[in-house]
Amino acid sequence: MLTHIFIKNFTLIDQLTLSLQENFSAITGETGAGKSLIFEALALALGERLEQAPHRDKNAPVEITLEFTLAPTHPAQQWLIAEQLGEEGQCIIRRTIMPDGRSRLTLNSRPITQSLLRQLAPLLVHLHTQQSHHTLLQQSEQLGWLDRLAGTIAKRQAIEELFMQISAIEQQHTQLLASHQNRTQEQEWLQFQIEELEHLAPHAEEWELLHQEYARHQQTHHVLSCLNAVLAAANEGEQPVSTQLYAILHQLNTLRFSDDTLSRIITLFETARIHVAEAVDELSTYRHCVTLSPERIRYLEDRLSHWQDLARKHHVPAEELHMVLHSLQERYQALSHLDEELLRIEQEKQILLHAYDQQAHHLSTLRTQAIPHLNADITQFLQQLGMPEATLAFVLQTGTRHRTGIDQVSLQLKANPGLPAGPLAQVISGGELSRVSLTFHILAGITQAFPPLFCFDEADVGISGETAHRVGECLRQLGEKGQVLAITHLAQVAARAHHHIKAYKETHLAHTMSHIHYLAQAERIEELARLLSGPTITMDTRRHAEHLLFLHAIES
After folding, report:
1. Which domains are delineated in the chain?
2. What DSSP string describes 72-104?
3. What is the pTM of this model?
4. What order do you get walking across the sheet with 422-423 strand by strand?
5. What is the pLDDT of residues 16-61, one digit of tens each?
C-alpha cells in the first residue's frame, strides 16, 4: 500500500506530507481547492511525461516522493527483486523536476528510467481519470479488459511474444526473397569486389608492418645521402680534407728547422692526417654495408597506394580492409546458400505459426468460457449502480491472426428494455460510461490477490441519489480489499469512506496555497453538510450528514 506522499513546490502546494490509510479514503473540497493535485503528483512520480512546468516557485525544483510497503509475495515486490532494485518490502519512488525542465527519477535511491518505471507503475497504482472512461470505447481496450477480468493476461502476453517472433521472421523471409531475386547480379558484384581484395590479400597487421618498413627505408635513404656527402668532402672534389692536410704538412715541414716550436704542431697535424685517413677508410667500409633497394621501395609505395585506394573505395580505414574482405566473403557464401536459408526460415515460421495457432485457439476457448460469467457479473453491478434494466455483454468473434490472438471483441450495451443492444461507442451516455468503467475497475480489484492502489477522479460524475449510495458502497467494498482514493462531490459517496480527506486553499499576501488533511468526526459532518447544501449549512443538513454517517456505520 501507499503509506506516504511528500510533495514540494508543486503548483498550489508549497509543501505537503500526507500519511495515507488503508481501505477507502474519500477526497472532497471546493472547486479549485487542489483535490486532483495528489493524482497529478502521483502520475508524475510514476513516470508520466511532463507536459508543462508545474513549479510553484520557478527558481526551485519540484520534489515528489512516494513510499509503498509491499508484502513479500506482492507482484511489485517480485518485480523489484527480479530487477535487483530492492528486497526489503519497501518501495520509495522519488522524482525531482528542475526549473529548466530536467527530471531525475530514483527507485529505492537508485536512478531509473521512465520506461522501466512504467513497467512497475501498474502493479502499484491504477489512476482512473475522467479521460480514461473514453478508452473503453476502443475495441482494443475492451479486449484488454476481457483478458484482465478473465485472468488470461499471461496467455495473451505469450501470444503477443509469438506474434512478434512471427512478424520478425516474416520480415527476414521477405528480405531473403528480395535477395533471391537479385542474387545473380549481387553475386557478380561481390565476386568482383572479392577478387580485387584477394589480389591485394590484406592481412590483419600488414598495414602497420608496411608502414614501419617503408619508414625504415626512408631513414636508410637519408643515412646514405649523409654518408656520401661526408665521404665526398673528405676524399673527393677539388679540395678534399686529406689533400688539404697533406698540403698543410708540406708547408710546415719547410719551416721545421727555423723554429723548434713548430715540430710539436707538425706532429699534431700528422696525427690528424692519419686519424682522418683511418676515419675515411672506416666510413667507406660502413657505407658499403648500408644497402638500399629501389625495387623494394617501389614495391612498398605501390602496395601502400593500393591499400589506400581500396580503403577509399570501401569507405573504411585501410587497417580494416581485411574485415571488409571477410564480410564480403560471408555475404557471398550466404547468397550461395540462400535456398537452404529460405527453407530453414520457412520451417521455423511454420513451427511458430503452429504454436501460435494452438495457443491462440486455447486463449479463445478460455475467453469464450469466461464471457457468460463476466457478462452476468458486469450486468449485476450495473444494475446496482442505477442502470436497473441494462445489460452489458462481451461479444466475441473469431478472425485472423493478430497481436492479441484470433479474437475480436465488442462490448454490446442494452441500456433500456425495448431497445436493441448496440456497440458501446454508439449507444452509451457519459454518465453510463463512467459507471461501466467503474464496474470494470471494481471487478478487477476484487479478483486480484494484491490489487494496486485505485485512484478515482470523480468516478461519480453524472449520478446522484440511490446510485450515489451504490457507488459509495462499491468503493468501500473495493477499499476493504486493498486501498482506494476517490475524489467525489457527493456526500453519499464520501460518507461510505473509511477515511475522509479535505482539500482547501488559503490566500496569504497574494499567494494561494493548497492544503490537504484528514478530517476528524466533527469536521467530517461539516464537510458532508457542505456537500449536501453548499456554502450555507443548516441544522437540517448537519442532521442529514450525521444520518448518512450513522446509517453507513450501521450497515458496516
Report:
1. 1-125+500-517 (3.40.50.300), 520-556 (no CATH)
2. TT-HHHHHHHHTTS--SSEEEEEEEE-TTS-EE
3. 0.64
4. 391-402, 405-414, 422-423
5. 888 999 999 999 988 877 788 888 899 999 988 877 778 888 889 9
